[in-house]
Amino acid sequence: MFRMTPAVAGIAFFSLCATAQTHTYKDSEWPSYAADLAGTRYRPLSQIDASNFSKLEVAWTFKTDSIGNRKEFKLEGTPLMVNGVVYTTAGSRRAAIALDAATGELLWVHGEHEGDRGAAAPRQLSGRGLAYWTDGKQERILYVTPGYRLICLDAKNGQIVSSFGKNGVVDLKLDDDQTILPDLTTGEIGLQSAPVVAKDTIIIGAAFREGMTPKSMRNNKGYVRGFDVKTGKRMWIFHTIPLKNEVGYDSWEKGSAEYTGNTGVWSQVTVDEQLGLVYLPVESPTGDYYGGHRPGNDLFGESLVCVDLKTGQRKWHYQLVHHPLWDMDISSAPILADINVNGRAIKAVAQPTKQGFLYVFDRVTGKPVWDMEERPVEKGTVPDEWYSPTQPFPTKPPAYSRNGVSTDDLINFTPAMRDQALTIISKYHIGPVFTPPVESKLGGPLATLTLGTASGGTNWPGASYDPETHIVYAYACNACLTPIGLMRAPKTLSDMEFVAGTAGQEVRNRQGPGEGVGADTPLPSRTPAAGRGGRGGRGGAAAGTTPASPPAGGGGGLTVQGLSLIKPPYGTISAISLDKGEIVWQVAHGDTPDNVRNNPALKGIDIPRTGQLGYNVGTLITKTLVIAGEGQVTTTPEHPRGAMLRAYDKATGKDAGAVYMPAPQTGSPMTYMMHGKQYIIVAVSGGNYSGEYIAFTLPDSEDRGTTAAQR
Amino acid sequence: MRIVIAAALLAVLVCAQEASKSVWDGVYTEAQAGRGKPLYNQHCASCHADNLMGGEMSPPLVGGEFLSNWNGLTLGELFERIRTSMPQNNPGKLSREVNADITAYILSVNKFPAGKTDMPHSAEFLRDIRIESEKKQR
Fold first, then answer.
1. φ and ψ at A372, to 5 degrees?
2. Among A77, A106, A87, which residue's Cα sits nearest to residue A29?
3. Distance from the B53 Cα atom to the nearest Cα atom in chain A, whole angstroms
4. Using CB atoms and an 8 Å cut-off, which of residues 64-83 of chain B contact chain A?
5. How many CB pairs under 8 A join A and B?
6. Do residues A331 and A353 lie in contact, with contact meaning Cβ atoms separated by under 8 Å?
7. What is the model's pLDDT at position B134?
8. CA–CA gap between residue A593 and residue A616 (Å, rounded)
9. Is B72's CB within 8 Å of A454's CB?
10. Could you tell me the pTM of the whole model?
11. Contact present, B98 and B89 (Cβ < 8 Å)
12. Which DSSP category does B52 fall into?
């Protein structure tokens, strides 16, 4: 019989803790939203490659319609796969579900009915995913409900872990170093991204309503917190808007740090477990396009902030945009990359952005890997706005998508189209990145015409990274135009001086798609209500006499004969070497849209593949491929109406196959191995097609065996 | 008898596959689109914008991106998507008549020609009308 001496027991106990805290996952699994805590969206799997990608078949599908009381058309989740089980969020209820990874069979489902609190939530619908944690024995699933409650489930059966928080729940509107106003039910704060668990700490950010037309300059603040995964106890908090006496407070003039809100971390958090450091991508402060009520640089708005994993203490920060006015946020997961620059090994963090800059820092010190230059930028003319005289520009790598508008960017399929485009933009203010918003005037400018702002560029799906070649692969919309015009806010709408609006049009509250659309929003009763009823009851006679003339700017406003005002490529995937700070290759992503390919006015003009508009395309990389679905549907001689899941050769960007999907990709793809077969799951939805997860795999005839390591 | 049934079945199949009309055939009236405009502004514009260009996170309802995404489907499918899921903060609230008027307004802004009869508000009838981004030569 073996008896443990106290010393041995101590060591054993210590090593138990150590293994519990650093559980290692197999390459064949996908244990975290972005594959790993480094944000790579990479798995070194090789069964699916250029020789067989086009032969992929649907292994199973999971329709999310019944997870909630209405269908969802905006399914954005990336599932996890651990130990043969797929975990994800789904449906208008945002339930957590577990599926058999080989068959898609539903193993369990857990949904929370949050009533008025869920109905009032700023970010409803299924969200982007969830987090998995294990100490080798217990397995837990963690996700945040629309009503901003952190739920802890037993991964084996979906049951609440009652020892966590209060009966398995942490109310995230409490214990937040602020009182969420006006009350716990309707107080604006939520989260749609997936939580992250690093070692034994859960990290939770915050999200708010769209910020184009805030009701008030005052709002709740988006602090970041760490919680103990075993108990749900709050371990630390980081104030994204500093308190008095904290670093950065002085960057809010006239005491504006006291009342300004938002400034949350709504996107994915990245962690270096070895260094014990957390990387937080912080969004814009209250008022996406007007900052007159928050004079100063507004730290830590639009800053990359590094904090300690154990304490939440700030280690370093870098503000990418001073005094944010363009809704650039920092919209996606920072990427950890161990790179070599001129023979020097650097532990780096790379940040893709809406503005098409890939910012690269030493992740220990926060020092830029390549010089950042503070360059003078245009000062705007909006009354009472505060302008930063300079903005930081990375000297390397070059911008990988358009982040300003010039006449060179306009449609040029034909001279007539270009002339039309010039006429349209004459009503707008244009310029390079950081050209400020304008007050909208009927005589012009109607707005500042921008690229690489609210939509991006690279938005929430983020980018991928290959740790072997040190290359980042980033999808970006290259033609997602956002006109930014400001109008004086009607007092009934907001206490802000200016909000987004267009001269000649009613200034109204602009909503995002996450509001009032989840399963907790009451469905209307089937009895006649406002806006219903017979023809006589619809707003009086005036309604019937209003002419249906197109709005100012011509039907379609910023399009030329229905075509994008901006020339192709509309969307791209770029491969960017972090060793060199250079773009290695760039391809247009997505088939040429139907209205370009079939346009009678373009007959006989040779137009190379244009790529597609859309900001929510995410990439997956494997041993040899970059994989991303199309964000739009097309009907081509090669395939019926649908969208393609495409593969590219990682080394060259050359086409490496495509497979048909019935609807556009709306959640980023992931991959895993199960019973010796490689699978790819992608979320599709949109148009007339409600949310569905589709799992692809090769037909058995194509399964050429795998290495033991991949099983 | 068998042949008759087969022919009838075939006819049904052909009808199901190929809608007989398209949005280029004048499937709404100007008056209907006129009624639809203020209803659109009231119920839809806060997300999709006054000029139908969409918002930061809401798709446009005019232009190439919109037409590409619906090209090849039918008005029935567009109508049912609107009827069952819009407006997003109160889906299903609007009557079929209101939804038809709003859909007519969307067609008018997309420069599809108006005709002599109002757009019907039954999805079954609307499934007979194809959405074609470009007018086909017939």
1. -105, 135
2. A87
3. 6
4. 64-65, 67-73, 77-78, 80-81
5. 202
6. yes
7. 81
8. 17
9. no
10. 0.89
11. no
12. S
Residue A368 sits at the vertex; the CA angle it makes with A363 and A374, to the nearest 5 degrees, is 145
pLDDT in tens, A475-495: 999 999 999 999 999 999 999
Q: How far is B74 from chain A (nearest CA, A)?
A: 10
Residue B52 near chain A (CB below 8 Å): yes
HSE, CB side, 13 Å, CA atoms: give it for residue A701.
3
Average pLDDT, chain A: 91
Alpha-carbon gap, residue A578 to A223, rounded angstroms: 31
CATH class of the domain defined by A28-517+555-710 = mainly beta
Nearest CA-CA distance, residue B125 and chain A, Å: 17
Asked if residue A239 lies in contact with residue A261, where contact means CB atoms within 8 angstroms, the answer is no
List of E strands, A489-570: 498-500, 559-560, 563-564
Domains in chain B (CATH in brackets) are 21-130 (1.10.760.10)
**Amino acid A542: pLDDT:** 32
Q: Is B47 exposed, middle or buried (0-12, 13-18, 19+ CB in 10 A)?
A: buried
Nearby residues of A617 by Cβ (< 8 Å), 6 or more positions away: A461, A475, A571, A589, A590, A628, A629, A630, A631, A665, A668
* Angstroms from B17 CA to nearest CA on chain A: 13
Q: Which residues, including other chains, have CB under 8 Å from residue B76's CB and lie 6 or more apart?
A: B123, B124, B125, B126, B127, B128, B129
**Cβ <8 Å between A556 and B109:** yes
Quick one: which of A612, A479, A505 has its CA closest to A558? A479
Q: Which residues 81-110 on chain B approach chain A with CB closer than 8 angstroms?
A: 81, 84-85, 88-95, 97-98, 101, 104-105, 108-110
B55–A512 C-beta distance less than 8 A: yes
* Best CA proximity match to A629, nearest among A689, A577, A583, A585: A689
| A143 token code pair | 């996700």
What whole-number distance in Å separates Cα of residue A332 and Cα of residue A355? Answer: 12
Percent of chain A with pLDDT over 70: 91
Give yes or no for a contact between A89 and A143, defined as CB atoms under 8 angstroms apart. Answer: yes
Closest by Cα among A126, A100, A133 to A20: A133
ipTM for the predicted complex comes to: 0.73
Q: Alpha carbon of B46 to those of A20, A287, A501, B37: distances in Å? A: 49, 17, 11, 13
Which helix H or strand E contains A521, and what residues bound it? none
Q: Looking at the complex, does the CB of residue B20 fall below 8 Å from at least one CB of chain A? A: no
Residues of A in contact with B130 (CB under 8 A): none
Provide, as residue numbers in chain B, all residues whose Cβ is less than 8 Å from the Cβ of A550.
51, 108-109, 111
Q: What are B108-135's pLDDT values in tens digits?
A: 999 999 999 999 888 888 999 999 888 8
Preceding omega of A238 cis (within 30 degrees of 0)? no
For residues A302 and A453, give the distance between their C-alpha atoms in angstroms, rounded to a whole number: 12
All residues at 6 or more sequence positions from A266 whose CB lies less than 8 Å from its CB, including other chains: A123, A191, A192, A193, A205, A206, A207, A208, A222, A283, A329
- What would the DSSP string read from start to end of A35-89? SSTT---B----SS-TTTGGG-EEEEEEE-TTSSSS--S------EEETTEEEEE
Choose from A287-301, A513-527, B83-97 the range with maximum mean pLDDT: A287-301
Residues in chain B: 138
Q: Kindly list the distances between the CA atom of residue A697 and the CA atoms of A52, A306, A660, A707, B79, in Å, as whole numbers in the listed order.
A: 10, 39, 13, 17, 35
The 10s digit of each residue's pLDDT in A606-643 is 999 999 998 899 999 999 999 999 999 999 999 999 99
A563 near A411, Cβ under 8 Å?
A: yes
Record: contact B134-A510, CB cut-off 8 A? no
What are the domain boundaries of chain A?
28-517+555-710
Q: Indicate yes or no: CB of A634 within 8 angstroms of CB of B73.
A: no
Distance of CA A648 to the CA centre of its chain: 22
Instruction: Residue A542: list chain B partners with CB under 8 A.
Output: 38
Return the structure tokens found at B92: 């299903």
